[in-house]
């Protein structure tokens, strides 16, 4: 079966500095996969290479068997991959509903359409309302996005990320800055909205990682040192050493925002 996402000998240099050094990773369709590692390991750079914000120096990035390395982000998005960011990326002056309606328009075929009245796009309204229900923000539908709590804004961004129907979802630190109770709610939300989809997430909170991931890859100094099940990663001595001797058992219960 063709992998949903496959990285082969992927590298990225900035000048003479090697950031990503020959990453190989294959993620099957429908898997929830976490990418973890110490600060500066290259996790966000890897996400940038996958989503088109940066072009690889060498190597390959394939989405459902099709090479996407070096393509523009909007092209990759239209091929079925959507990404959220560490910093909340929403339209603050629009309502929650308007944010979601904007996110569904292209996938419904409206593209650069200047002659349709938004209020009459019943399919866009229906899809936006479906996502509203999925992310639990129905009561905040008409609220300006800037007035949402931080956790609600993150939920909205996840809603925007999935609204276009992408089958491969990249979430970059989705619970960063959240309290433990907010993180628990976010985990449940992510689990619900990614049913049947492929999820790849960068996350520092080990409680979130071990609660969501089917498999985990550990990135250290631009190289994947281990890919395995959560239990195997928890007991991997190389992985524990990469976290400066910190016990993954402790991190998974305490969290590490």
From TrEMBL:
Matching PANTHER family: CONSERVED COMPONENT OF ABC TRANSPORTER FOR NATURAL AMINO ACIDS, CONSERVED COMPONENT OF ABC TRANSPORTER FOR NATURAL AMINO ACIDS-RELATED
Keyword Oxidoreductase included in the entry's annotation: no
Domain annotation ABC transporter: ranges: 5-246
The organism's taxonomic lineage, starting at the top: Bacteria, Pseudomonadati, Pseudomonadota, Betaproteobacteria, Burkholderiales
UniProt keyword tRNA processing present: no
Keywords: ATP-binding, Cell inner membrane, Cell membrane, Membrane, Nucleotide-binding, Transport
Identification of the protein by name: Amino acid/amide ABC transporter ATP-binding protein 1, HAAT family
Record GO terms (molecular function): ATP binding; ATP hydrolysis activity
Tree of life domain: Bacteria
Organism: Paraburkholderia phenazinium
Pfam families: ABC_tran, BCA_ABC_TP_C
Gene Ontology CC: plasma membrane
């Amino acid at each position: 079966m063709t992998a949903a996402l496959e990285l082969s000998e992927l590298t990225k240099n900035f000048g003479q500095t090697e950031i990503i050094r020959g990453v190989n990773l294959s993620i099957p369709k429908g898997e929830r996969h976490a990418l973890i590692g110490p600060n500066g390991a290259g996790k966000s750079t890897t996400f940038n290479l996958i989503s088109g914000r940066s072009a690889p120096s060498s190597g390959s990035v394939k989405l459902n068997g099709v090479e996407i390395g070096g393509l523009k982000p909007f092209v990759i998005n239209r091929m079925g991959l959507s990404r959220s960011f560490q910093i909340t990326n929403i339209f603050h002056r629009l309502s929650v509903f308007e944010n979601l309606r904007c996110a569904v328009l292209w996938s419904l075929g409206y593209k650069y359409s200047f002659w349709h009245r938004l209020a009459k796009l019943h399919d866009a309204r229906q899809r936006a309302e479906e996502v509203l229900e999925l992310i639990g923000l129905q009561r905040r539908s008409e609220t300006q996005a800037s007035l949402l709590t931080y956790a609600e804004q993150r939920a909205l961004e996840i809603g925007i990320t999935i609204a276009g129907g992408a089958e491969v979802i990249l979430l970059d630190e989705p619970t960063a800055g959240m309290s433990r109770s907010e993180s628990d709610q976010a985990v449940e939300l992510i689990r619900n909205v990614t049913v049947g989809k492929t999820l790849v997430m960068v996350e520092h909170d080990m409680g979130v990682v071990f609660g969501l991931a089917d498999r985990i890859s550990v990135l250290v100094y631009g190289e994947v040192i281990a890919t395995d099940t959560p239990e195997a990663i928890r007991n991997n001595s190389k992985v524990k050493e990469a976290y400066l001797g910190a016990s993954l058992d402790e991190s998974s219960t305490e969290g590490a925002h």
